[in-house]
């Protein structure tokens, strides 16, 4: 497995939607990257707030010299969480699409272009609603032929997973994948209670 190490300050999401999940690592130092070509699927677990929300946009961050030409299809997947041993892992596939994200270079502190930001706004027909207080996994796979494309990760973190077909299983590494999910938040339990009280007053 290849790793790509650098430390940079990365810009925040450009999406106009409200941020539903943010691992809080893209504003700090990137520790490195894990292979993101079509022989890897990178995945990380996340949980939305209690009201849940509708996923409308996904941002993720990359390192590597090949990112400038990484314009081929990517595959984004959302999974349930499986209770596997010794760690939980991606379970059943809830949603999966092939996409063409916008990828832009971001200058690091040293002025290099080895740091990249990918963003994709979903078509409204493909929006995905996810419940709150429930663990899900997001998976990112680059399906193109270019090499030197790595999904960025950072510390502090817990674990993220990667699927390597020759192993036929999910494997784990320390750290967090650097990604964010944006969209429309769902109604919290307080909002639903308040709205019910308003309706009953008429």
Largest sheet: 13 strands, antiparallel
Average pLDDT rating? 77
What proportion of the residues is helical, as a percent range? under 10%
Uncertain runs are 1-15, 188-202
> Number of DSSP strands?
13
> What is the global morphology?
globular
How far do the termini sit from each other?
A: 64 Å
Q: Helix/strand/pairing class, anyone?
A: mainly beta
Counted by DSSP, the helix tally is 1
C-alpha-based Rg, rounded? 18 Å
Order of helices and strands: EEEEEEEEEEEEEH
Tell me the strand percentage band: over 45%
Name some characteristics of this structure.
disordered N terminus, 13-stranded antiparallel beta sheet, 1 helix, 202 residues, disordered C terminus, globular, 50% strand, mainly beta, single chain
